[in-house]
Amino acid sequence: RRRLAARGRSSSSSPSAVSPAFGLDDDEPYTCPQEMLADLDVIDAALAAGGSGLLRTPRLRDLRWALRTFGFHLQALDMRQNSETHEEVLTELFALAGVSGDYSALDEDARVELLLRELSHDRPLLGPRAELSATAARELGVMRAAAAAVDLLGPEVVPHYIVSMCGSVSDLLEPAVLLREVGLFSGDPAEPRSGVRLIPLLETIDDLAAGPGILDAALALPQFRALTRAQGDVLEVMLGYSDSNKDGGYLAANWALYQAERDLVAAADRAGVHLRYFHGRGGAVGRGGGNSYDAILAQPPGAVQGALRITEQGEVISAKYSEPHRARRNLEALVAATLEASLLDVEGLGDRADEAYGVMAELARLGREAYASLVHHDEGFIEYFTSSTPLSEIGELNMGSRPASRKQTSTVDDLRAIPWVLSWSQSRVMLPGWFGVGTALRNWVDQRGEAGSGERLATLRGLYTNWPFLRTTLSNMAQVMAKADMGLAARYAGLVPDAGVGRRIHGIISDEFDLTREMLLAVTGHETLLDDNPALARSVRNRFPYLEPLNVLQVELLRRYRAGDEDPAVRTGIQLTMNGLATALRNSG
Question: Whole-prediction pTM value?
Answer without folding.
Answer: 0.87
